[in-house]
Specification:
With 445 residues, the protein is α/β, with parallel strands linked by helices. It has 3 domains: 54 residues, no CATH class; 123 residues, Aspartate Aminotransferase, domain 1 (Alpha-Beta Complex), CATH 3.90.1150; 235 residues, 3-Layer(aba) Sandwich (Aspartate Aminotransferase, domain 2). The chain is built from 16 helices and 13 strands. The strands form 3 sheets. The chain has a 7-stranded mixed β-sheet, sandwiched between helices. The protein has a 3-stranded mixed β-sheet with strand order 1-2-11. The longest helix is centred in the C-terminal third of the chain and has 26 residues. The structure holds pyridoxal-5'-phosphate (PLP).
């Protein structure tokens, strides 16, 4: 490390911190005006990747992303023969790999193969699709539900199908990328309200609501980067006052919050009918891959016939639908899993606070951020944790603000309190080393 001059180092750091994340910038890879060409190497995106790799290489930080695991996505994992306590996987209820879920998937596979072969509208429909959707509708007490092949695509296709340029979409500033893409793709006017700030939303509604036909307010049940929970009662009151639709993304709240893991409505004891569009994913608590929407019959019928991500995409693999159906069953029949997860969430939150770690606005949820303060420091810390047998990945700019770069811990019902103690205590111990490392790299000679 430190093979570069001080000037080069600060240039690299500026890039790392995203200062050069300007569309017109060539990111210091030479003052070349990007020409029209047919070479992927000229793409700004490619240059960004190169710039990041260069910084990491100069600092001797291995790339923490895209590592190949040797085992199941569970609270403990194995990478290249080494065991790690895993805080980078959302196996919230510790159900991934459960024999009953594997058997359920296998049964579907034996009967229907690995693919249902076409869009469900055409010839892809199998009984397990409807069974899963019924289970999701029952879980929420809604009239109906519909599943899609990807959680990300669910948000994109649902929002962009339902709303158009005559409409207004108000989204929490920290909403997931898929929400934002769906909103942009709809053609509606889209405005962000401040994170979890009801007053900011109210002001936008007062100013803007009257100018549009439909209005959608969209937010998350538990925020994927911050682990906090929005004020649902206040959102419901606003939606009613201003005649708006309310959509909640339950990706990180299903199985996690509410006494029996039913999500944000149960957490606040609010009828699910007060949320017009309940969206969620099959990839977390439900151990598979895909997304769902639950709500009124008319909503689901419109999506079945008009959402491109449903109409023009293959149906969910029967094996995955079978796995999620079984996971949903186990979520209800083994409530001790939810209780254990919730106990772990509370334990981890308290432990982090006791150690004086900065967890931002996190509630006791399965997403625990430890804010480190720069992308560089978060990456260094993640790397050091890895060397200590702990897998927890950095969340860096531009995914979060540079000053709020963090390590994100996903908690599972399968973690033990000593897993949590060990991870957070090591974070605390390593912080001075991270600061030293950073200072060494940033020193001006
Ligand atoms: C809030 C939120 N919504 C949607 C998604 C997309 O879900 P999936 O990864 O299942 O496609 C994610 C991904 O983690 C998410 O965090």
């Amino acid at each position: 490390m430190n093979k570069l001059s001080a000037q080069d180092r600060s240039k690299l750091l500026a890039q790392f911190a995203g200062v050069a994340n300007n569309k017109n910038s060539t990111l210091g890879v030479g003052a070349v005006k990007v020409k029209k060409s047919c070479n992927f190497k000229d793409f700004l995106l490619y240059k960004k990747i190169q710039a990041h790799s260069k910084v990491a290489e100069q600092m001797g930080i291995p790339n923490p992303f895209m590592q190949c695991h040797g085992g199941m996505a569970k609270a403990h994992t194995n990478i290249e023969g080494v065991d790690y306590i895993n805080f980078a996987t959302y196996d919230y209820l510790g159900l991934n790999g459960d024999k009953r879920i594997n058997d359920a998937a296998f049964m579907q596979m034996e009967q229907y193969g690995t693919s249902c072969g076409s869009s469900r509208l055409v010839a892809g429909e199998r009984p397990v699709h409807r069974a899963l959707e019924q289970a999701i509708a029952d879980h929420y007490g809604t009239e109906s539900a519909l599943c899609f092949v990807s959680g990300h695509a669910t948000n994109v296709t649902v929002i962009s199908t339902l709303f158009n340029r005559d409409d207004l979409i108000l989204y929490d500033r920290l909403s997931h990328n898929s929400i934002l893409l769906g909103a942009k793709d709809s053609g509606a006017t889209i405005l962000a309200f401040k994170h979890n700030d009801i007053q900011s939303l109210r002001e936008l509604l007062i100013e803007q609501r009257g100018k549009y036909n439909n209005c959608l307010i969209v937010t998350e049940g538990v925020f994927s980067m911050d682990g906090d929970i929005p004020d649902l009662p206040a959102l419901v009151a606003l939606k009613k006052e201003f005649d708006a639709f309310l959509m909640i993304d339950e990706a990180h709240s299903l199985g996690v919050i509410g006494n029996t893991g039913r999500g944000i409505c149960e957490y606040y004891n609010i009828p699910t009918q007060d949320v017009d569009i309940i969206m969620g994913t099959l990839s977390k608590t439900l151990c598979a891959c895909g997304g769902y929407v639950a709500g009124k019959k008319e909503l689901i019928e419109m999506l079945e016939y008009y959402a491109p991500g449903f109409v023009y995409s293959v149906g969910l693999s029967p094996a995955l639908a079978g796995a999620s159906l079984k996971a949903m069953e186990l979520l209800h029949s083994e409530p001790e899993r939810v209780q254990k997860l919730q106990a772990n969430c509370l334990y981890a939150k308290n432990k982090a606070k006791e150690l004086g770690l900065d967890i931002g606005s996190a509630s006791a949820t399965a997403v625990l951020p430890v804010i480190i303060g720069s992308s560089l420091k978060a990456t260094i810390l993640s790397n050091l944790l890895f060397q200590h047998g702990i897998l927890a990945l950095p969340i860096i700019f531009p995914v979060v603000e540079e000053a709020k770069a963090r390590i994100r811990f996903f908690l599972s019902a399968s973690h033990t309190s000593s897993d949590i103690d060990r991870a957070l205590e090591i974070v605390k111990e390593l912080l001075p080393e991270v600061a030293k490392y950073e200072a060494q790299f940033t020193k001006t000679e």
